[in-house]
Each structure stands twice: as structure tokens, then as C-alpha cells.
Amino acid sequence: MILSNMSTCTVEEVASSCNAVRFFQLYVLKRRDISAQIVHRVEKNGYKAIVLTVDTPRLGRREADIKNRMVAPQLRNFEGLLSTEVDTDKGSNLEALIKGIYDTSLSWEDIGWLKSITNLPILIKGVLTHENARKAVEVGVAGIVVSNHGARQLDYTPATISVLEEVVHAVGGRVPVLFDGGVRRGTDVFKALALGAQAVLVGRPVVYGLAANGERGVRRVIEMLKDEFELTMALSGCPNVKDITRSHVTTEFDKLRSML
Question: Which residues are part of the catalytic machinery?
């Protein structure tokens, strides 16, 4: 699992609750010293990688949050380090909070800074183009997550499944490419792997399962995805994951090429 920087549970609480492989998702703060402290806590508690989100220099315009005057939950990882109290009567409390604490100057050079404070592998999340994929490899990331932040950051951003293959080709096998966004069925997992992803991330379905039936709901969501994925493999003639190939899917681009 990838624990969010904005989690309502601390890195220590999550580490003590399970033996799963854990990564930590990081937003770089204006207070770099606090970001560094959190990274050191992550390392100390056995997390295996840092997933640096790079698509949020500012929070996108989330109109539902503004309309509902969303209030950010208690952010436990910042307790004693940073005040997360924000007074606003103009919409989303979360938007005001992020504007106050996120470092909007984040750039490619900061990958070097992050590498200087941790020995953990660094993946970057939020890549959608071949240009950024190549640049990410050049600056030394250990992996790329193709993600559009659940399509919540920018209207008309491309669906991640439509740009996955572009990123995979740009990377050329030099680092793993993970896929995030829109995974709702096991068939979605199959399609992403066929287009070159090494793994997929699942976000909203897990939250839906949790809301519906707690831990049992989450387990059921994972079981459903696994069962559907295995059934898709069987019905596609794939005894093993390595047998899933590009020939198992047809995209809109394939259709266009066939017409030329």
C-alpha cells in the first residue's frame, strides 16, 4: 500500500498495524525541514519507497469541495510540526490549507534534494507525457506512476489509460511504470498490464468498500478485482501474468492506424 502524506493515521501507526509492503506518498512542503523529518520517520519505520506527487503545485479547482466548504481532516503526520488550522469562510478549507503549506516552486532539481536525504527509491506520480517520462529517468527516479490525480486536478486532462503506452515507450524498460486511475474491474488491470504497466494502483474502490462495510468491505473489493483479473486471464489464454501481451488489447490509436 501507499500511505498518503495527508493520512489521518501516522506512519508509525500504519507500520505497526500490518506487515504489508508499504510506500509513502510525499508532497514537498514549504518547510523542507518538516518534509525531511517525515521522510526520516518513513525510513525508520520500514517503508520501502517514496512516491513523490508532482502534479499538485496548486490544488485544482474542486467545485464540489468549494460548494460544500470541505474541511480538511486532522493530518496526524504533521502533529507537533506544523499547524494545519485554517480559518476561511470562502469555500474549501483544504484548498486554503494546501496553498499555505505546499511548495509551489517544486522542480526537477528537487529530485536531487530528495535523493540527498534518503536512501529509499523515489518514484514520481503524476506523469502523463513522454517528455516528462524521459526527464524523470534522466534525473534518476526509480519508477514512474502514470496518474492524473483521479482527474481532479485539471479539467480535460487525458485519461491515464490513453497515455500509458506513450510513457512506457519513452521509458523503454529503464524503470518500472505503474498505472493509476480508473481501475474499477479486473479487466482494467488486464488492459493496463497489456499496455506495459508493471502494476496498477487502486484508490476509490477501496474507499467505497471501506465506507460500505469497513475492513471486510475493503477485503471484498480486493478479492473482486483479483477474481475478475484471474478470470480475464483465463478467458484470454494467459496462464501467467507474463503471458499478457500488447496483442491482447486494441486501442483507438490502433483503429486509426489501420485506417491510414
Answer: 149
User: What would the pLDDT profile of 169-226 be if each residue is shown by its tens digit?
Assistant: 999 999 999 999 999 999 999 999 999 999 999 999 999 999 999 999 999 999 999 9
Q: Give every strand in the sheet of 177-180, ordered side by side.
A: 2-3, 23-26, 49-53, 122-127, 143-146, 177-180, 199-201
Residue 98 phi/psi, 5° resolution? Answer: -65, -40
38-42, 44-48, 89-93, 108-112: segment of lowest average pLDDT:
89-93
